[in-house]
Automatic annotation (TrEMBL):
The active site is at S96, H208. Its EC number is 2.3.1.39. The keyword Transferase applies. This is Malonyl CoA-acyl carrier protein transacylase. SUPFAM superfamilies: FabD/lysophospholipase-like, Probable ACP-binding domain of malonyl-CoA ACP transacylase. It comes from Clostridium aminobutyricum.
């Protein structure tokens, strides 16, 4: 069976995330212990308000996601060693922050400690970029429901020189809009007039918008100092929805320094570029992927997938119940 792995992004957080896996999966516990007591406390006991803070959320979600990833493969091996031989990981994709988990799982980021270091810095810089002179968040995000062009037309009608743009193209019926608070208020009012549903998201700022330019530059410069390797799996880029490495010539892909520089450049750009999620899922299907497994807190990505490709087998892993369900269904389909 051809599998695609999906790694969750910010917004999926909740109090207690990862706790069950920590208590029942040795591999997951190992990851959570690596993260340290502070991150464990935030994941297990952090308040809703605390977990909305970007510099806290990003390392927490990354940690729980990697714990769930390790628990999945540990669980499959325990269930039936032949199960691992019966599936083929064709590709991976991560939603925004989740792209760093995908880079780690595919071997591009050397290890989980390095990944934690990267996403912690990313979270801090994105948080800083989103603050106004008063130290308060100056932007936000809204999930808008309707066809993409109608939503973008609404954005254009009320932009009025401020930052306001479509940033997450999630499904045929959902686009996330990010921008300055005043512009978002105009957008919500106009969306209501146009009979479009618009729901504010539980995030601290305007991710993937022009507002993130200072963070993108800092992140890119920092990533240039990291030794990033070519992914061992096809990794669908947030920016292009194509293979991350497709923009680098075959000759340059053999040059480790050029590979590292190229990935650093792409991941810097990612912080201020739209996420082409619908296109990613459609490309996975074109590549023959028969099942996708969402890894990390929540099941929001699974919901998006169903809006894009209703008949695609969609599973997720975030706790022991979902882990067991996923392994049982995989075994059932493989043995059918």
């Amino acid at each position: 069976m051809k599998i695609g792995l999906l790694f969750v992004g910010q917004g999926a957080q909740y109090t207690g995330m990862g706790k069950e896996l920590y208590e029942h999966s040795p591999k997951a516990k190992e990851i959570m212990e690596l993260a340290g007591d502070e991150i464990k406390a935030w994941c297990f006991e952090g308040t809703k308000e605390m977990l909305r803070q970007t510099h806290i959320t990003q390392p927490c979600i990354y940690t729980v996601t990697m714990a769930a990833y390790e628990a999945l493969f540990e669980g499959m091996a325990k269930h039936d060693a032949a199960l691992l031989d019966s599936i083929e990981i064709v590709g991976m994709a991560g939603f925004s922050l989740g792209e760093y988990a995908a880079l780690t799982a595919s071997g591009s980021i050397s290890d989980i400690r390095k990944g934690m270091e990267i996403v912690t810095k990313r979270g801090n810089w994105m948080n800083e970029a989103g603050l106004g002179e008063d130290g308060e968040p100056r932007g936000g995000m809204v999930a808008a429901f309707g066809d993409r062009q109608s939503i973008l037309d609404c954005v254009a009608a009320v932009k009025d020189g401020e930052i306001l743009q479509g940033v997450n193209f999630n499904s045929p019926v959902q686009t996330v809009v990010a921008g300055e608070k005043t512009a978002l208020e105009r957008f919500k009012a106009e969306a209501k007039i146009r009979k479009m549903k618009a729901i504010p998201l539980s995030v601290g700022t305007a991710f993937h918008s022009e507002m993130m330019a200072p963070a993108a530059e800092k992140l890119q410069n920092y990533l240039m100092t990291c030794k990033l390797k070519a992914p061992t799996y096809k990794l669908y880029s947030n920016i292009t929805a194509e293979d991350l490495m497709a923009g680098l010539s075959e000759k340059d892909q053999a040059d480790e320094a050029k590979v590292s520089e190229y990935i650093a450049d792409r991941m810097g750009q990612q912080a201020m570029s739209p996420v082409c999620w619908q296109d990613i899922i459609e490309n996975m299907v074109k590549d023959g992927i028969e099942c996708v497994i969402e890894i990390g807190p929540g099941s929001a990505l699974s919901g998006m997938v169903k809006k894009i490709k209703e008949d695609l087998l969609t599973l997720h892993v975030e706790d022991m119940e979902s882990l067991k369900h996923t392994i049982d269904l995989l075994a059932e389909h493989v043995n059918a």
